[in-house]
Design goal:
Blueprint (H helix, E strand, L loop, with lengths): L1 H9 L8 H4 L25 E10 L7 H7 L7 E7 L5 H5 L6 E5 L5 H11 L2 E8 L2 E2 L3 H12 L5 E6 L4 H6 L8 E4 H5 L2 H4 L7 H11 L4 E6 L3 E2 L2 H5 L1 H18 L2 H14 L2 H21 L1
Parallel strand pairs: 1-2, 1-4, 2-3, 6-8
Antiparallel strand pairs: 4-7, 5-9, 6-7
């Protein structure tokens, strides 16, 4: 126990870990002697160059075509992996109608975090794009926009900010539990074993701690026309509310409420400011040009 708390203190997580994170091994955060302590750098070139897209699905037969028709065959994606997390509807049959998809299935339903861990472990390319299965309004250009900051070297991680993200997230400029993100595979492949022991909905919070540990530059990509289907729309008001409470509970089991607030501030500090300054400069130039022609 003393050794565990010493490791937590080194990462400045002491006192903010929830029970699930206290049970996770420190090596998942890169706590080996050779782990980098500054900005993220790739220690291995063993994987193929490209993007493995991972989608996790549970009973999404009525919705998953929205995302599949965009990502299957997309030129920016090297492979599409869909993890069927114990679906009991027609999800698997629908997925089999897309022959180029790498389909991973298991039963019973184990939750999103476990399904993500399987997709990450199976990925063959050196970057990961993680997407939720219940997106609506998504277009091929949104995939390009999410991948661009990482693939251009402007950031190590990109995270989406959807049009129906919580109001608070849209105001502060980051949705820290967004399911849509791009990251180097090496950052997450060491966390697969730990993720398989986390709660059903603890994956994003856990990944965030890894990004913070490695001081990754984060780019927030706004998706103004993309929404995710809310749980009350899937299950009805009562069951949807219970599912939302369960998600919050799982996040709080990975980090304490204080830890979650601290994580938000730390991620805000990692946002790629150069990227935003560049956008502000372009906006100012366009505004000046408009005034000259007006």
């Amino acid at each position: 126990m003393a050794k565990r708390r010493e490791g937590a203190a080194r990462m400045d997580f002491d006192g903010s870990r929830g029970p699930a994170l206290r049970a996770a091994p420190d090596f998942a955060f890169g706590e080996s002697p050779a782990a980098p302590t500054g900005p993220a750098t790739d220690p291995s070139a063993a994987d193929l160059k490209g993007i493995s897209c991972v989608v996790c699905a549970y009973n999404e037969a009525d919705r998953i075509r929205n995302i599949l028709d965009v990502i299957v065959g997309h030129p920016s994606l090297s492979e599409v992996i869909v993890v069927n997390d114990g679906s009991t509807d027609a999800t698997e049959a629908l997925l089999k109608s897309y022959p180029t998809i790498r389909l991973l299935s298991h039963t019973p339903n184990r939750g999103k975090t476990y399904a993500l861990s399987r997709g990450i472990a199976a990925a063959r390319y050196d970057h990961l794009m993680l997407l939720d299965a219940d997106l609506a309004g998504i277009k091929p250009a949104d995939i390009d926009a999410l991948a661009a900051p990482v693939m251009r070297g402007e950031a190590e991680v990109s995270i989406s900010l959807r049009s129906n993200s919580l109001w608070l997230y849209r105001q502060i400029g980051i949705d820290f539990v967004s399911g849509e993100r791009v990251a180097p595979k090496w950052l997450l492949k060491g966390a697969v074993e730990a993720m398989q022991r986390l709660p059903r909905w603890g994956g994003e919070v856990y990944m965030n701690e890894i990004f913070i540990r490695h001081a990754c530059r984060i780019a927030v990509v706004r998706w103004p026309r993309v929404v995710n289907i809310r749980k009350y729309q899937k299950f009805g008001a009562w069951r949807g509310a219970l599912a939302e409470v369960k998600m919050i509970s799982d996040a709080a089991s990975v980090l304490t409420p204080v830890g979650l607030v601290r994580q938000n501030f730390r991620m805000l500090n990692l946002i790629n400011r150069r990227s935003w300054r560049a956008k502000i400069k372009v906006f100012a130039q366009r505004l000046a040009s408009y005034r000259l022609t007006a």
